[in-house]
Amino acid sequence: MRFLLNPGGNLRGSVRVPGDKSISHRAIMLGALADGVTGVTGFLSGADSLATLAACRAMGVAITDPDAAGRVTIHGGGLHGLTAPSAPLDLGNSGTSMRLLAGLLAGQPFASTLIGDASLMQRPMRRVTQPLGLMGAQITASASGTAPLQITPVDQLRGIEYALPVASAQVKSSILLAGLFADGATWVTEPAPSRDHTERMLTAFGYTVERDGMRVGVRGGGRLVATDVAIPADLSSAAFFLVGASIAPESDLILTDVGINPTRRGIITLLQMMGADIEIVNPRTFGGEPVADLRVRSAALHGIEIPEEQVALAIDEFPALFIAAACAEGETVLRGAAELRVKESDRIQVMADGLTALGIAADPAADGLRIRGGQLRGGTVNSHGDHRVAMAFAMAALRASEPITILDCANVATSFPDFAPLAAAAGLRISSDDNG
Ligand SMILES: O=C(O)C1=C[C@@H](OP(=O)(O)O)[C@@H](O)[C@H](O)C1
Ligand SMILES: C=C(OP(=O)(O)O)C(=O)O
């Protein structure tokens, strides 16, 4: 599938982007492990979170199909209620599903195999198999540390104290989920804060999570009690609209019910540093998660040096932020973000190539990118099957001088299936076809 964009336009009105992907994964996993019936609203019906749902169903958990409001009912069987899947669990494009489920499955009394699509089968998994191995788990990966992951049951996991080499919520969460099935306490220390949805949701399900500065811990053998979960709109999906409305003249857009968890808010901070006009309206909480409406109006942006402590707080928003940088006066410089090279695509190289194709000077480094703002031309960009790259370049059309074609966009459905119609309703001149 490809996106076809005509240049110009602006974004106006009110948009509710779909439910948060990270929180949707966790709602299914914790609901599956809880005692009782969990009711979810605002679940993301994207391919990634549906892969987690299908995996939990394949392990015997009764879960209803999401309806249009993202209502899902999960009949949890308790911490020891999962049953052996009859086939490998295929997690598609979803790194979060594979890494979190690896931790959850390490402590089960049955064998399992985790596979995914061509992108996921190339992503690094040693970051979870290594610490889970220290807990006593038996997991084999390929010689290069990638899936398929074969998980063999062991008698008992043991708690560990583990210092994460990079700030990663997926690795932290994987270890904590294994910790639910381990003897004693499991502690994870982070080098910098990463998203804390697992900790918040464990607490909401009545499980004690201990905190001590940058250390977070759980003790095995507790109990999760079913609860209702209201999932906020995904700030990572809202990010494309925050950028689009900032760069397009005469834009004025409201994004409703957006999660503004402090461990996810880097994109708001960074755009505001660049001069964006973003107002946080009506802050409130959905369960344990802070939420607000965001009003964004066009603004003249300027380039910045991105503070390294913001990198983990905005990790998925850099494709969108790079488009803002392309439209800003002066240079924007990112460093300390080597993690971007091991996402669904190599987001440093793929974004640099796309920006260059559109006439913007973009100079990649091992751990970042330097972008000089300028006039976006039209042209053809390859998203390499990366949903966030595709949606970021779609927004670039608002400031381009000629049409833009974006190739390999089907994976937009992993996190934001209705992106094209929602963006078109707000004013983006987007259509799609099946020719590329
Ligand atoms: O825990 C999560 O839900 C996620 C954590 C991040 O990955 P890392 O932990 O690998 O940084 C992020 O990139 C991903 O989209 C979702
Ligand atoms: C990195 C992402 O997801 P995942 O790691 O779950 O594939 C993302 O959605 O940008």
TrEMBL record:
Q: Which reaction does it catalyse?
A: 3-phosphoshikimate + phosphoenolpyruvate = 5-O-(1-carboxyvinyl)-3-phosphoshikimate + phosphate
| Keyword Cytoplasm in annotation | yes
Q: Which SUPFAM superfamilies match?
A: EPT/RTPC-like
Q: Any idea which positions bind 3-phosphoshikimate?
A: 21-22, 26, 168, 170, 316, 343
User: Which residues participate directly in catalysis?
Assistant: 316
Free-text function comment from the UniProt entry: Catalyzes the transfer of the enolpyruvyl moiety of phosphoenolpyruvate (PEP) to the 5-hydroxyl of shikimate-3-phosphate (S3P) to produce enolpyruvyl shikimate-3-phosphate and inorganic phosphate.
Family under the similarity heading = Belongs to the EPSP synthase family.
- Entry protein name: 3-phosphoshikimate 1-carboxyvinyltransferase
What is the source species?
Answer: Thiospirillum jenense
Q: Which gene encodes it?
A: aroA
